[in-house]
Amino acid sequence: MMFTRRQVLGGGGGLVAVLSLRSPALLADEVVEIRMQGRDDGSQVWFDPIGILVKPGQTVRWTNLNSGNSHTTTAYNPANLDRPLRMPKVAEPWDSGYLLPNESFSAAFTARGVYDYYCIPHEHAGMVGRIIVGGPEAHGWTELAGANGDLPGEALKAFPKVEEIMTRGIVRRD
């Protein structure tokens, strides 16, 4: 069977158009990876990236790549060790429990807003992160500004700015 030039170009153009139209639903299905890392001697630990912007419904997966430490990813929420609320009130808090090297934990984020989280054994060292789902305006971001509670100074200094995450989409550790 022979195709005319017009048929080939029309078919190829249609294929390009279909491939370029990635729907938000497909993007929301993509898993965002956050690595839990640290120096071999244990002197520094961190999440990378430390700040991300995701779409509602997107899943985030944390993986411990630090061969010498166990880590957690734990939402700032009174349900988790009575920590201050630093996430949307309507959202479910999470706590991965201790993850050994090469173990992972995943959570899906559906409620719009800002979610702050930490590593239980390393919060004092500034091992914290921030996820923005959709945008910061939803579910009382302004209320979070005063919800510092008893957070360690290193943790408070480590959070990336909301504006930087919104502008860049992803903030990696310096």
SSE topology sketch:
Layout: H1 5-20, H2 24-29, E1 31-38, E2 45-48, E3 51-54, E4 58-64, E5 74-75, E6 104-109, E7 113-118, E8 128-133, H3 141-144, H4 153-158, H5 162-168, E9 170-171
Parallel strand pairs: 1-4, 3-8
Antiparallel strand pairs: 1-2, 3-9, 4-6, 5-7, 7-8
CATH architecture verdict: Sandwich
Strand order of the largest sheet: 5-7-8-3-9
> Which of globular, elongated, flat, extended, rod-shaped describes the shape?
globular
Overall average pLDDT: 84
Stretches with pLDDT under 50, minimum 5 residues: 12-26
Give a quick set of tags describing it.
alpha+beta; five-stranded mixed β-sheet; four-stranded mixed β-sheet; 5 helices; globular
Summary of the model, kept short:
This protein is α+β, with helices and mostly antiparallel strands and 174 residues long. The chain has one domain: Immunoglobulin-like.
Detailed description of the structure:
- A hairpin with a 6-residue loop joins strand 1 (31-38) and strand 2 (45-48).
- This protein is globular.
- 22% of the residues lie in helices and 26% in strands.
- It is an alpha+beta fold and 174 residues long.
- Mean pLDDT is 84; it is low at 12-26.
- It has a single domain (23-171), classed as Cupredoxins -  blue copper proteins (Immunoglobulin-like, Sandwich), CATH 2.60.40.
- A 5-stranded mixed β-sheet has the order 5-7-8-3-9, covered by helices on one side. A 4-stranded mixed β-sheet has the order 2-1-4-6.
- It has helices spanning 5-20, 24-29, 141-144, 153-158, 162-168, and strands at 31-38, 45-48, 51-54, 58-64, 74-75, 104-109, 113-118, 128-133, 170-171.
